[in-house]
């Protein structure tokens, strides 16, 4: 692996400020999805090592939570600076293990770092309250204090940013943290731990363990010392983890599956809508939770939109993330290829037409557009998580909103219109936690990221993201005038 700083490539886990091997002698291979090459192997840890990480986080909690907010802010700011100083190496690691084009990987590193910077600043703005009392002999105050030891399981599609937007607010609030990254992409997480260590984050405050998902997960959800659990992944897995957390009544935040609609009204700027469609659907090879899943286009502009979108998608270049001009890398594994193929075959079998793409080579799936999609097809209801764009037709605004809301998911939605009245109505009517109007990109550290319905609950980013890691304590002080 071509890195300027080879010490960023770690194959041990980070517990209590030191690097540890597994107890059982087992390792997990990390494979480059673009070519199948072995990049490294990491520890296959289980319950014992996870409990040790929890102990280290619990031990570190009192000193970290008592540290002045300005000092926590300083350490987080230093972590941010180190991430940006090593942006190129971190992007290389990300492209090697996840497959996304190098330019896109650089963007993820900067995006992930923005959460560290944001919460470094927010750490100094954890305000309490003084309440008016009806009794002159009392003083009523509200404190906001750290939840305690926190834990998270993060996915493979954004192996850098999904970590920083959970860990940064927790550390800013005064919590300590145990992270279990996805086994397909653990190297980005371990590199972040190395930089946190260099930044001066004390031992035990941030711990990273890799290994058996079931064993690690059972400790992270079942250990009563952990007071907050966060998960990004599938709705099915999220439900199971939430149930496991119920035994100890943990605070839980979940960012789960999506089925994002992208609505194009007949008054939209079609060229802008197509550009937004490509950005929303095809970045990271369509493997994003807020990725457009369903395109709904009004009948009068349907054919024109299909034509413009097809031409734009045909310009995308598929290949190894290292190759010049590549805009679409591989999907993560063979199972993903098979799912995309099944969804495509189901749609074509019911009368949809392929306007471009429709084939794969290894783990590279050619960006595909299908016209004539209908609500009876699997693509209308299942999360695609790949570069397949089904385009549906609708007649009026009421139908568009009804179709868009016809799902158990509620993470992100997008629409294009130049009618201010329609923009207001549709924005309010869409049953989603986030809505992009005349844009296909909505993520921002300053904004609350999260969904409703079976897409989960809780928010990441913004000042609200800090609240996820804080408890509210009310204090009634009497006898002031005695």
From TrEMBL:
<dbReference type="InterPro" id="IPR015590">
    <property type="entry name" value="Aldehyde_DH_dom"/>
</dbReference>
<dbReference type="InterPro" id="IPR029510">
    <property type="entry name" value="Ald_DH_CS_GLU"/>
</dbReference>
<comment type="similarity">
    <text>Belongs to the aldehyde dehydrogenase family.</text>
</comment>
<keyword id="KW-0560">Oxidoreductase</keyword>
<dbReference type="GO" id="GO:0005829">
    <property type="term" value="C:cytosol"/>
</dbReference>
<dbReference type="GO" id="GO:0036243">
    <property type="term" value="F:succinate-semialdehyde dehydrogenase (NADP+) activity"/>
</dbReference>
<dbReference type="Pfam" id="PF00171">
    <property type="entry name" value="Aldedh"/>
</dbReference>
<dbReference type="InterPro" id="IPR010102">
    <property type="entry name" value="Succ_semiAld_DH"/>
</dbReference>
<dbReference type="InterPro" id="IPR016163">
    <property type="entry name" value="Ald_DH_C"/>
</dbReference>
<dbReference type="InterPro" id="IPR050740">
    <property type="entry name" value="Aldehyde_DH_Superfamily"/>
</dbReference>
<dbReference type="GO" id="GO:0009450">
    <property type="term" value="P:gamma-aminobutyric acid catabolic process"/>
</dbReference>
<feature type="active site">
    <location>
        <position position="255"/>
    </location>
</feature>
<dbReference type="GO" id="GO:0004777">
    <property type="term" value="F:succinate-semialdehyde dehydrogenase (NAD+) activity"/>
</dbReference>
<dbReference type="InterPro" id="IPR016161">
    <property type="entry name" value="Ald_DH/histidinol_DH"/>
</dbReference>
<protein>
    <submittedName>
        <fullName>Putative succinate-semialdehyde dehydrogenase</fullName>
        <ecNumber>1.2.1.79</ecNumber>
    </submittedName>
</protein>
<feature type="domain" description="Aldehyde dehydrogenase">
    <location>
        <begin position="19"/>
        <end position="475"/>
    </location>
</feature>
<dbReference type="InterPro" id="IPR016162">
    <property type="entry name" value="Ald_DH_N"/>
</dbReference>
<dbReference type="InterPro" id="IPR016160">
    <property type="entry name" value="Ald_DH_CS_CYS"/>
</dbReference>
């Amino acid at each position: 692996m071509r890195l300027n700083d080879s010490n960023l490539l770690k194959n041990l886990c980070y517990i209590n400020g030191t690097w540890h091997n597994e107890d059982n002698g087992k390792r997990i291979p990390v494979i480059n999805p673009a070519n199948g090459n072995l990049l490294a192997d990491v520890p296959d840890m289980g319950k014992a090592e996870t409990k040790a990480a929890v102990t280290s986080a619990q031990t570190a909690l009192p000193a970290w939570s008592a540290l002045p907010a300005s000092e926590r802010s300083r350490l987080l700011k230093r972590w941010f600076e180190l991430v940006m100083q090593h942006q190129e190496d971190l992007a290389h690691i990300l492209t090697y293990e996840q497959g996304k084009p190098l330019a896109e990987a650089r963007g993820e590193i900067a995006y992930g770092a923005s959460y560290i910077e944001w919460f470094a600043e927010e750490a100094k703005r954890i305000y309490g309250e003084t309440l008016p009392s009806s009794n002159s002999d009392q003083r009523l105050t509200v404190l906001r204090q750290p939840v305690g030891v926190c834990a998270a399981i993060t996915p493979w599609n954004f192996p850098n940013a999904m970590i920083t937007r959970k860990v940064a607010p927790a550390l800013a609030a005064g919590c300590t943290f145990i992270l279990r990254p996805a086994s397909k992409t653990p190297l980005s997480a371990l590199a972040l731990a190395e930089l946190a260590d260099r930044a001066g984050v004390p031992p035990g405050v941030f711990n990273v363990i890799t290994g058996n998902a079931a064993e690690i997960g059972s400790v992270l959800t079942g250990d009563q010392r952990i007071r907050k659990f966060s998960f990004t992944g599938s709705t099915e897995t999220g439900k199971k983890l939430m149930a496991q957390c119920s035994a100890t009544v943990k605070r839980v935040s979940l960012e789960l599956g999506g089925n994002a609609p992208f609505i194009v009204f007949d008054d939209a700027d079609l060229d802008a809508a197509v550009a937004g469609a490509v950005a929303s659907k095809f970045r990271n090879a369509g493997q994003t939770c807020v990725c457009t899943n369903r395109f709904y286009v009004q009948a009068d502009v349907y054919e024109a939109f299909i034509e413009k979108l097809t031409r734009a998608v045909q310009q995308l270049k598929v290949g190894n993330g290292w190759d010049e001009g590549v805009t679409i890398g591989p999907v993560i594994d063979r199972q993903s290829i098979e799912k995309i193929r099944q969804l495509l075959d189901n749609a074509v079998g019911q009368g949809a037409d392929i306007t471009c793409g429709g084939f794969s080579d290894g783990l590279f799936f050619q960006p595909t557009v299908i016209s004539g999609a209908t609500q009876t097809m699997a693509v209308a209801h299942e999360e695609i998580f790949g570069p397949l764009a089904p385009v549906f037709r609708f007649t009026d605004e009421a139908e568009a909103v009804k179709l868009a809301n016809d799902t158990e998911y509620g993470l992100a939605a997008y629409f294009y219109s130049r009618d201010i009245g329609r923009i207001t109505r549709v924005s309010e009517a869409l049953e989603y936690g986030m809505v992009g109007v005349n844009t296909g990109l909505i993520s921002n550290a300053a904004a609350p990221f999260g969904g409703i319905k079976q897409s989960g609950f809780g928010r990441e980013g913004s000042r609200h993201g800090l609240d996820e890691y804080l408890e509210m304590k009310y204090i009634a002080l009497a006898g002031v005038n005695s």
